[in-house]
Amino acid sequence: MTTGTQVQAATLFKNACWQSIHFPIMRYLMSNADGRWDGAEKAQRHLEMSYFYVAVVKGLDVDAVRLNEDEAYMAVHDATQALTDNLDEAIGFPLRGRPDYEALAPVFFEKFHALALQALGLHDLANMAVTNERTA
Q1: What is the tens place of the pLDDT at every residue in 53-66?
Q2: What is the pTM of this model?
Q3: Are 54 and 69 contacting, i.e. CB atoms less than 8 angstroms apart?
């Protein structure tokens, strides 16, 4: 059973994650836009967001993750790959025209956040965050 305190902690954690990776998400989305496609930046931002989640969950510096946490990094990267490879289907990212980044970024974050936490074995935290969003 989830307590109000646990939901509050999950909400605070989720907000901290959003604040920390908002910029990489925006850049990631921009690197996928029609006429702006940049595969190198796309890969860099996906790597950055994946490292971030491993570092936060394991209580490590990002550099320590790069050196010692290949398995955890790959778990997050692989779990989020279906999202990042299918933005049009997963979040409604337009294949043509100018995307509405402000509307798409939170949708992308919700999915990336849940997938990353699940990949790191934090199913309950991911579910609390999703449940909390539906009840807010």
Answers
A1: 999 999 999 888 88
A2: 0.87
A3: yes
Give the span between the Cα atoms of 59 and 37, in whole angstroms: 34
Task: Enter the tokens of residue 92.
Answer: 């409604």
Residue 98, amino acid: R
Identity at 23, one-letter amino acid code:
F
Residue type, 126: A
Half-sphere exposure of 79 (CA within 13 A, CB side): 23
Closest residue by Cα to residue 28 from 49, 14, 52, 54: 49
Span 85-109, average pLDDT: 93
132 confidence band (pLDDT: 50, 70, 90): very low
Question: b/e for 107-136, b at 16 or more Cβ within 10 A?
Answer: ebbbbbbbbbbbbbebeebbebbbebeeee
Please say if the pLDDT value at position 37 is more than 70.
yes
Q: Give the residue extent of every domain in the chain.
A: 4-135
